[in-house]
């Protein structure tokens, strides 16, 4: 029998921090970002990146604005060692960018790591060892003193070997790996022991990176852990407090945001949340969450599609179509009520107003994405989406009742096919249903005489059943006169219920479009649409198309 969860799993104990401050804090500036795409992201790939791929990725990270980039684990492989050498020897590291490398707390590995950085102007040397009880007991078979000793000895080796390359400005970063499941007092004890050896100062700080190596709890608990460390670490003003959330529970973004509220200065993560298991925290999401709150994150994602393609090609992993901000479908509305609200939002938006479009927390244009994909029509869509696409595609601004009438035509097709209908297909349906209605009466020409301001005469030349017809009528305007002419011919009253017109295009290409809602006899109202360079002809064509639709 499958075990009950309460018999199999342990609940994570809440942190005792009754005077926690973070819930009242607001993030008002971005943290220092550190991309670990080339290290934590890379170590989690099925096929790790080649030297060339890493260099391509590095250049892209620099272009995005990252100032700290972890480029690998140089003591682990020749590839990673060579990446560091190429970056240094080929002068690929801009002056305001610092590379970071990771090592275990083992002398041979530290020695080789330091060697890989020969000639670097500035470098962050990142050493880790796990501190949590399960690692102490299961992996290292040692006690707290043993684990603390590994961190202390490792730090001494880092001090010793980096001192041999004084031309480099060294920044030391220490991570108590599995911090999220380490007793807080013990995490502090290890970190304080490390800083006592390294001796950071406010002018030359060191970095303590507190990883949720495995995400163990709700994000508020991680925030409590970070606030506790922020308040209790020795020598806090000489420390850059960094966080490194993984996404095992799917709440890494929330954990990172609450951790920043709790006192973290710096966040490590990967683009689109790549990384071990369920990934590292997604830096794109974090940065754009800030952007949408009116805070510039200091990272440039203004061409998000290009960045997504680069990351997909370097990692060989797809970005989910619903990934926040970056997924192919995240700015797309298929459903009717969403489309209606978005259409109204665009109409209400002015150049000066703050962004306020329902369902779109961020302007797709800020990420280099077009509005074309914002509204897409399938069987879940309504009149708002259909008319929005028709307007975008061909400039028609349908009156409300025509929107309702036409969307039923589109709905019929989408129900039959169970497929999306794109803008050009919608235009084609509109053209067939409203503009190319040439039977039984085909328009040939019309002449309007409005010399007399009160009585306008319309002469309309038509084709009907292979015969040429010329009809004439008088009314208070061209449309009224044409309606009179056609009423006489058909022997039925033609009533114009509603009339709209607008122009499409400009200059010599400008077209007038008329929408006429009419009734033939006692029948139901229907719409006719006419398009012509001449507004009177457009109105007469609209009337005739409407009558044709009734007669068909
Ligand atoms: C949470 C993280 O992401 S941590 C980073 C993880 N990333 C990687 O491991 C990628 C690169 N690593 C590697 O390629 C390899 O681990 C290497 C080449 C660095 C080392 O390989 P190996 O020498 O075979 O050692 P391995 O990684 O298996 O580690 C096991 C040994 O190192 C010790 N060890 C592991 N981590 C650490 C550490 N951080 N500090 C000190 N010792 C450590 C273990 O206790 C074990 O010791 P034992 O052999 O005496 O039992
Ligand atoms: C090396 C450390 C920081 C790490 O990647 C982790 O704990 O997740
Ligand atoms: Mg990690």
From TrEMBL:
A Pfam match: IPMS_D2
Subcellular location: Cytoplasm
Main subcellular location: cytoplasm
GO biological process: L-leucine biosynthetic process
Keyword tRNA-binding: no
Name recorded for this polypeptide: 2-isopropylmalate synthase
EC number(s) reported in the record: 2.3.3.13
Gene: leuA
Required cofactor names: Mg(2+)
UniProt xrefs under CDD domains: DRE_TIM_LeuA
UniProt xrefs under HAMAP family: LeuA_type2
Xref: PROSITE patterns: AIPM_HOMOCIT_SYNTH_1, AIPM_HOMOCIT_SYNTH_2, PYR_CT
Positions that bind Mg(2+): 40, 244, 246, 280
Keyword entries, A-Z: Acyltransferase, Amino-acid biosynthesis, Branched-chain amino acid biosynthesis, Cytoplasm, Leucine biosynthesis, Magnesium, Metal-binding, Transferase
Stretches for region Regulatory domain: 437-552
Family: Belongs to the alpha-IPM synthase/homocitrate synthase family. LeuA type 2 subfamily.
Segments forming domain Pyruvate carboxyltransferase: 31-305
Pathway: Amino-acid biosynthesis; L-leucine biosynthesis; L-leucine from 3-methyl-2-oxobutanoate: step 1/4
Protein's job: Catalyzes the condensation of the acetyl group of acetyl-CoA with 3-methyl-2-oxobutanoate (2-ketoisovalerate) to form 3-carboxy-3-hydroxy-4-methylpentanoate (2-isopropylmalate).
GO cellular component term of the entry, any: cytoplasm
Key word Transmembrane present: no
Reaction catalyzed: 3-methyl-2-oxobutanoate + acetyl-CoA + H2O = (2S)-2-isopropylmalate + CoA + H(+)
Domain of life: Bacteria
Species name: Methylophaga frappieri (strain ATCC BAA-2434 / DSM 25690 / JAM7)
Molecular function, one GO term: magnesium ion binding
Subunit structure: Homodimer.
């Amino acid at each position: 029998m499958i075990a009950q969860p309460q018999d199999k799993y342990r609940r994570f104990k809440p942190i005792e921090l009754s005077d926690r401050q973070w819930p009242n804090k607001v993030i008002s500036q971005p943290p220092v970002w550190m991309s670990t795409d080339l290290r934590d992201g890379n170590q989690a790939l099925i096929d790790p990146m080649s030297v060339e791929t890493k260099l391509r990725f590095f250049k892209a990270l620099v272009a995005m604005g990252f100032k700290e980039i972890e480029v690998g684990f140089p003591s682990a492989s020749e590839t990673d060692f060579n990446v560091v050498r190429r970056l240094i020897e080929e002068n690929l590291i801009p002056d305001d960018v610092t590379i970071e490398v990771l090592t275990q707390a083992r002398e041979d590995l530290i020695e080789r790591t330091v060697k890989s950085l020969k000639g670097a102007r500035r470098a962050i040397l990142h050493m880790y060892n796990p501190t949590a009880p399960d690692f102490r007991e299961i992996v290292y078979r040692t006690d707290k003193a043993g684990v603390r000793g590994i961190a202390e000895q490792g730090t001494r080796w880092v001090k010793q070997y980096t001192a041999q390359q004084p031309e480099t400005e060294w920044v030391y970063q220490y991570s108590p790996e599995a911090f999220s499941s380490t007793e807080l007092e013990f995490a502090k004890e290890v970190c304080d022991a490390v800083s006592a050896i390294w001796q950071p100062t406010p002018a030359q700080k060191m970095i303590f990176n507190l990883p949720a190596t495995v995400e163990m709890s709700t994000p508020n608990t991680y925030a409590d852990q970070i606030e506790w460390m922020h308040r209790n670490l020795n020598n806090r003003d000489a420390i850059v407090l960094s966080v490194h959330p993984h996404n095992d529970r799917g709440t890494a973004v929330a954990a990172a945001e609450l951790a920043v509220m709790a006192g973290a200065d710096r966040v490590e993560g990967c683009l689109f949340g790549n990384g071990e298991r369920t990934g590292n925290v997604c830096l794109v999401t974090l940065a754009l969450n800030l952007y949408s709150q009116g805070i510039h994150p200091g990272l440039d994602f203004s061409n998000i599609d290009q960045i997504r393609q680069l990351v997909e090609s370097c990692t060989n992993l797809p970005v989910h179509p619903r990934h926040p901000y970056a997924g192919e479908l995240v700015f797309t509305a298929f459903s009717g009520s969403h489309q209606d609200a978005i259409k109204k939002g665009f109409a209400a938006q002015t150049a000066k107003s703050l962004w306020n479009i329902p369902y779109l927390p961020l302007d797709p244009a800020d990420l280099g994405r077009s509005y074309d994909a914002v509204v897409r029509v399938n069987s879940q869509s309504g009149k708002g989406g259909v008319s929005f696409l028709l307007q975008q595609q061909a400039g028609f601004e349908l009156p409300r009742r025509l929107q309702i009438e036409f969307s039923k035509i589109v709905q019929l097709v989408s129900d039959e096919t169970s497929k999306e209908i794109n803008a050009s297909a919608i235009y084609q349906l509109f053209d067939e249903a409203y503009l190319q209605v040439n039977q039984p009466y085909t328009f040939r020409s019309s002449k309007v005489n409005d010399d007399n301001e009160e009585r306008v005469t319309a002469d309309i030349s038509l084709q009907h059943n292979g015969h040429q017809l010329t009809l004439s009528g008088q009314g208070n305007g061209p449309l009224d006169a044409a309606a009179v002419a056609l009423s006489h011919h058909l022997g039925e009253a033609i009533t114009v219920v509603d009339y709209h017109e607008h122009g499409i295009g400009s200059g010599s290409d400008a077209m007038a479009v008329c929408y006429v809602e009419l009734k033939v006899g006692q029948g139901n109202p229907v719409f006719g649409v006419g398009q012509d360079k001449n507004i009177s002809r457009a109105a007469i064509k609209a009337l005739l198309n409407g009558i044709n639709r009734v007669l068909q």
